[in-house]
Amino acid sequence: MPAISLITLAVADVARARAFYEALGLRAAPPNEEAVAFLDGGGVVLSLYGRDALAGDTGLADGRPGGITLAFNVERPEQVGERLATAVTAGAKVLKEPREMPWGGVTAYFADLDGHPWEITWVPDFPLTEDGRIVLATAEDEEDG
Predict the structure, then answer these.
(1) What is the mean pLDDT of the chain?
(2) Does residue 28 contact residue 15 with C-beta atoms inside 8 Å?
(3) The domain spanning residue 111 has which CATH number?
(4) Higher pLDDT, 70 or 98
(5) Is 74 in the same domain as 136?
(6) What is the C-alpha end-to-end distance of the chain, expressed in Å?
(7) CA–CA dist 117, 140 (Å, integer)
(8) Best-predicted range by mean pLDDT among 32-36, 111-115, 138-142?
(9) Residue 118 shares a structural domain with residue 105
(10) 90 and 127 fall within a common domain
């Protein structure tokens, strides 16, 4: 089965972006390089790569496509606001304050130092493992269950 193993963000300053994500609790893996940083995202690696270098690799004009958000899921509704406060302290800009959603969850949005939009969300139907991974029920699970 294919798995998403690494997500790369184009950033203006790798060291500054690395410090921001470390302040959010992600752990960087050695080596400490100026050109790229790799952080443990709990089963998915978050890579921070210089915007110009990524543009050269991909052929995209500014090194990043649009129309995506990344997300941190939390175990309890009150953690949405707590995690947002941590992001703001690290330098994030609030895009949407925590709010209850029509589908029953709680969601907030922030932009990181390079403008990448992140969602912080509590979803009652998404139980998390001890290390923070989402457990999705699949059609196979329903057939077995």
Answers:
(1) 86
(2) no
(3) 3.10.180.10
(4) 98
(5) yes
(6) 21
(7) 33
(8) 111-115
(9) yes
(10) yes
Q: Residue 61: is its pLDDT beyond 80?
A: no
Domain end residue (candidates: 18, 36, 65): 65
Q: What is the 3-state secondary structure (H, E, C) of the chain?
A: CCCCCEEEEEECCHHHHHHHHHHCCCEEECCCCCCEEEEECCCCEEEEEEHHHHHHHHCCCCCCCCCCCEEEECCCCHHHHHHHHHHHHCCCEEEEEEEECCCCCEEEEEECCCCCEEEEEECCCCCECCCCCECCCCHHHHHHC
Q: Contact, 36 vs 22, CB < 8 A?
A: no
Query: Structure pTM?
Result: 0.81
Q: What is the pLDDT of residues 101-129, one digit of tens each?
A: 988 999 999 999 998 999 999 999 888 88
Identify whether the C-beta of residue 133 lies closer than 8 Å to the C-beta of residue 42. yes
Which domain range does residue 77 map to?
Answer: 67-145
Is residue 61 domain-shared with residue 71, that is, in the same domain?
no
